[in-house]
Recover the amino acids of this structure.
């Protein structure tokens, strides 16, 4: 039962990554919610970098969805554990950029914690 719950949660994270990436194309100003103060979302050069990030978000989400659909819980667990480095890195970047604690801990830190729990549940299966 816990494996099913963890797999569904992993799928939701994968779908969320794809959605974040897709939404960044029509609304790059949404990147301001990432947590870095004074994000220049109107700057064309910065928008190009946001496009790069969007493509990577989509690909990351698709990787998770592929593993949800066809891998063993154990392999999905290892992948989710490795992917936990993404929100941890994001939290460190926002923290280093003097971003709000709500983004550091409430967004990126909470995502990392959820992914860590999902990993543990899948690896224990």
């Amino acid at each position: 039962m816990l494996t099913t719950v963890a797999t569904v949660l992993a799928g939701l994270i994968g779908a969320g990554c794809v959605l974040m990436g897709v939404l960044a194309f029509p609304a790059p100003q949404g990147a301001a919610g990432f947590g870095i103060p004074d994000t220049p979302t109107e700057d064309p050069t910065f928008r190009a970098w946001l496009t790069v990030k969007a493509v990577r978000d989509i690909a990351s989400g698709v990787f998770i969805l592929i593993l949800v659909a066809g891998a063993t819980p154990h392999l999905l667990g290892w992948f989710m554990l490795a992917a936990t480095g993404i929100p941890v890195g994001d939290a460190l970047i926002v923290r280093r950029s003097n971003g709000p604690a709500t983004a550091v801990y409430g967004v990126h830190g909470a995502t990392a914690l959820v992914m860590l729990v999902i990993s543990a549940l899948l690896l224990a299966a």
